[in-house]
Structures are given as structure tokens and as C-alpha cells.
Amino acid sequence: MDLEKPARPPAAAPAGEGCLVVAVRLPVRVVVLVLVVPVRLVWDALAVAGRFLNDTLLRPLGRALRWAGRAVFVWPLVGLWRYVLVPFGKGLAWLGKVLVVLPAVAFHRHVLTPLGRGAAWVYARVLTPVGHVLAAIGAGAWAGAVWLARCLVVVPSAWLYRWVLAPVGRAVVRCARGLARLVATVAAGIGTGLYWVVRILLVLPALAVWRRVLAPVGRVLAVVAREAGEAFGHAWRVAGYVSLTVGRWLGRLFRWVLVEPVRWMYRSVLTPVGHVVRDAVLRPLGDAARQALAAARASARRARADLRRTLFGERAGAEGEPQLTHRREPDGPRARTLGGSTTALTKD
């Protein structure tokens, strides 16, 4: 937002920032702002389109797919579990209890328990005394074997180690130490020479290149990268405001150019014209069409009746056939004659 307030005096550079940072910041921010504004506009347009698609297409489609998934997978699986697998499992559990558990309990109670008690009595009364006797015999035999092994093996071995192996081992160790010191001295000399060779030929030039070339270039690149990152964030926020302003302006332009004229045209022109056309043209035409259709149906009905009468003759009282009457004389009760009466006393 520094570009929007040019009248404000520039703030002092923070500690650690030199003229390089001040010289790099403004061009980097300008370039990044020019590059980021179109990207932010496209991003906001895609976000609006994505929300529109989500609200109008993806969310109803997801609900339909969820309902279809429930209807196709969940409900059949629940019914299978509830009405097939659970009763089948209960039946298997009852069958396993009857065929396995109860026989096993009976076998343990009536067979294994008496056998175990008998085996415990045999162990306590028979095997334990025999074991004690064998243990005493074995202890005596072990003591004799230990004394014999001490006299025949341990004492000669100790003498051999003390008077033969130990002096020979000390001599070998002394020789090995001297040889190791000699090898270490030679290796130290060779290592020192290689160290100075590597230090003079590789380390000192590499250190000079690092201090004189790479470190300054790295500092410059770090400053440029930091300023580019800050400029990107600044430009992204500014592009957001620009995108919001452009979106509102486009919305208002669309409303003024298309929506309001269409609404005014619909309310002020099309609706009255439609009412006039409906009342003056369509409704009379509809009434005339209905009357003409009714007259055509009546004419067709009379033509079919005349044709049927001409071909097959008169069939009075036929079920499902309309009765034709003379339109000038009403179809009512017969007129009174001299031989007839309509009173209750004289009616036939």
C-alpha cells in the first residue's frame, strides 16, 4: 500500500538494511505487482466459478450420489447384517455351545479332573520320594566328578597358563604395541603431509572463493529473494483489492447494461402487451376455438349417427348409444288423453 500514499514521508530503513535493499525493493514490487494482478484476477474468477459450480451442480450431485450409495450399498448391507448374518451367527453360537462347549465341560469335569487328581497322588506319593533318592545319588556323583575334574584338568591348565601362555602373550603384546606405534608414527607423518597439501591446494582457495565471491553474491540473492517474497505478498493483497473492485464494477455494469433494461422491458412493455394480447386476442380466440370444436364434435356425432342409421337401421334403446330427440318438442311425460288419467285414483 506504499504506492497509494506518495505524500507520506518514506520511513527510515530498519537496522541491517542498506542502500541495496532500498534500491531493490521498489523495482521488485512494481514488477511483481504487474505480474500478480492478472493472476489474482484469474484466481478470483476461478474461485467464483468454482463456488457457483459447487452450489448448483456438485453439491446436489454429491447428495444424489450419497443417497444412491446408501440405497445401493448401505441399506442392503445393513439388511444383510441385521436379518441374515446376525441370526446366522446366533445360530452358530448356539450350535457351538451345544456341540463343543457343553461336551468339553463335561469331559473336563468327569474325565480330566479325576485323572489329574490321580496323577497328583502318584506324584506326591511315588515320584517325589524316588526323586529325592535319585537327587542324593546324583549329588554324590557330581561332587566326585567335580573333584576329579579339578585334579585332572583345572590344576594342569592353571599351571600351563601361568608359566607358559602368560609370558608368551606378554611378549606378543609388547611386539604388537611397538609395531602399532611405528605404523601410527608413519601414518601421522603421511597424514600431516596430506593435510597441508589439501589445505594449500583446496581449502585455502575454496575459502577465499567463498569469502570473496560466493558470500557477497549469496547476500545479494538473499536480499532479492526476501524482497521478492515481501513484494509478492504486497502485490497479492493489492491484486485482491483490485480484483474485488473490478468484480463489483463488472457486476454493476452487467446489472445496468442487461438486468435493469430487461427488467424494465418485462415490467413496462412486455407485461402490459401480454395482458392486452391475452384479453383482446387469445381469450376471444380461445372461446371461438372451443365453440368451433364443440360444434365440430356435435356435427361429427350427428353424422356418425345418421351414417349408422342409414347402414344398420334404427336401434332404439341400444346400450351405450345416445338417443336422438327432436329439438323442437321436449322429451317429457305423455300428454293427458280421454282414456288416461294422471290422478292416483284413476291411474292404471
Helix content: over 70%
Shape: flat
- Beta-strand level of the residues, as a percent range? under 5%
Note the gap between the termini. Answer: 115 Å
Mean pLDDT: 80
Number of continuous helical runs: 1
Largest sheet: none
User: What's the number of extended β-strand segments?
Assistant: 0
**How do the helices and strands follow one another from N- to C-terminus?**
H
Q: Segments where pLDDT lies below 50 for 5+ residues?
A: 1-16, 324-333, 335-348
* Class from secondary-structure proportions: mainly alpha
Radius of gyration: 58 Å
Brief summary of the model shown:
Residues 314-348 are annotated as: Disordered. It is built from one helix and no strands.
Structural commentary:
The protein has 348 residues and is mainly α. The chain has a domain of 241 residues. The protein contains one helix and no strands. The protein starts with 18 loop residues before the first helix and ends in a 36-residue tail after the last helix. The N terminus and C terminus are likely disordered.
Highlighted features:
transmembrane helix, disordered C terminus, transmembrane, single chain, Integral membrane protein, 1 helix, 0% strand, 348 residues, mainly alpha
Reconstruct the topology from this structure:
Layout: H1 19-312
